[in-house]
Amino acid sequence: MTRKILLTGGAGYIGSHTYAALCEAGYDVAILDNFDNARPDVPDRLEVITGKPVTVHRCDILDPAALARVFASDHFDGVVHFAARKAVGESQRMPLEYIETNCTGLINLLKAMRAAEVFNIVFSSSATVYAPTTDWPIPEGAALGYASTYAYTKLMGEQIIAQVAAADPRWHYGVLRYFNPAGAHTSALLGEDPSDIPNNLMPYIAKVATGELPALNVFGNDYPTPDGTGVRDYIHVMDLARGHVLSLTELIERGNSHTLNLGTGQGYSVLDMLNAYSRACGKELPYVVAPRREGDLDCYYGDPTKAEALLGFRAERGLDAMCADSWAWVSRKSNMRGQG
Ligand code: UDP
Fold first, then answer.
1. Ligand 1 atom nearest to 290, measured from its CA
2. Which residues cross the membrane (predicted)?
3. Inside any domain, residue 103
């Protein structure tokens, strides 16, 4: 029997890749998105990738009546919940908006699910819920904390879901803590597409590669790491998407709630990333050393063994694939702009 899934934020960066992965795994998926931070033609591109019409509910999770209409329109076996605000720096300037979308939005969704008797949820969390540590890689049992309003809302989201599930055994949840998503769909039809100057490393490097930005600012080269630049756990967005499929299947087929890291367990430095991208695009990308960014840690990478033990999940695509797929995506986009 084909299972029906509602994918909130399904037109966004990770959401759209997860849509493609869920369809490939045989799920019947509908997207719920308000398109505040997603391109309007993502559903068209998903139709090209999947060869099937895409169902889209244009809906805001802050609108309970609209959510109720979506759940009345069909019976869903589960929800994968991405719809959220996600910029750490912005969250410091707009705490109420972040708490409202990420926490009130989640509560609205859980209420709508309960009313429709849908009790399986995969929740998009973040490795920012870990308290600062010097113990790498981080296992799921490490101390939790937050250094930004964004991280606060993700930790709060995890705790809200845990409280709800503790009170009613019909609920099953998969909480997935992502490390640093990178790369694009191998079709070059989906990828990260920030309209402003990116805050994150990979989309910034991509814009240096296309010539939209002159050089990468490397935020500090005097960290206690092998080359002095910050080390992170970059995971290919298609691996991340596959992790969501496995998590959902674990909930639906076996009713096993879980909280897992999704990363590779492998740390790469800023210069590792820049060099890999230079290889992918065939030219040496320029950089300048800038002061450290406030709040940055020298190192951050996860212990991926629990996801492998429970779900059989292991990231399969390495650094070169992340950069090659990102480059294929951004160069296709800039060619299209050139023709337009
Ligand atoms: N970084 C950098 N220049 C940039 C953006 C990021 O040197 O323009 C560094 C940053 O200091 C960190 C790494 O790249 O060491 C990853 O940063 P990102 O913001 O992508 O992820 P996060 O720090 O949230 O893990």
1. 7
2. none
3. yes
Rounded distance, CA 154 to CA 85, Å?
Answer: 10
Instruction: Give pLDDT < 50 ranges for the chain.
Output: 340
Residue 34 Cα to ligand 1 midpoint, Å, equals: 28
Sign of the dihedral through C-alpha 35, 36, 37, 39: positive
Torsion of CA 38, 240, 143, 305, to 10 degrees: 180
Instruction: Determine the straight-line distance between the first and last CA of the chain, rounded to whole angstroms.
Output: 44
| Within a domain: 323 | no
Task: Give the chain's domain count.
Answer: 1
CA-proximal residue: ligand 1, atom 3 (nearest): 218
Q: Are 232 and 238 in contact (CB under 8 A)?
A: no
Quote the CA–CA distance of 320 and 315 in Å, as a whole number. 13
Q: How buried is 52 (Cβ within 10 angstroms: 0-12 exposed, 13-18 middle, 19+ buried)?
A: exposed
CA-wise closest residue to 36 among 17, 63, 54 = 63
Q: What is the CB neighbour count within 10 angstroms for residue 87?
A: 18
Q: Is residue 258 part of a domain?
A: yes
Distance in angstroms (rounded) separating the CA atoms of residues 89 and 64: 28
Ligand 1: nearest atom to the Cα of 205: 8
CB 119 within 8 A of CB 242: no
What pLDDT, on a 0 to 100 scale, did the predictor assign at position 338?
Answer: 57
pTM of the model: 0.97
Q: Which domain holds residue 164?
A: 4-179+235-263+301-315
Q: Is residue 84 part of a domain?
A: yes
How far, in Å, CA of 81 to CA of 331, rounded? 30
- pLDDT above 90 covers a percentage of the chain that reads 92
Name the active-site residue from 19, 130, 150, 223: 150
Active site residue 150: yes
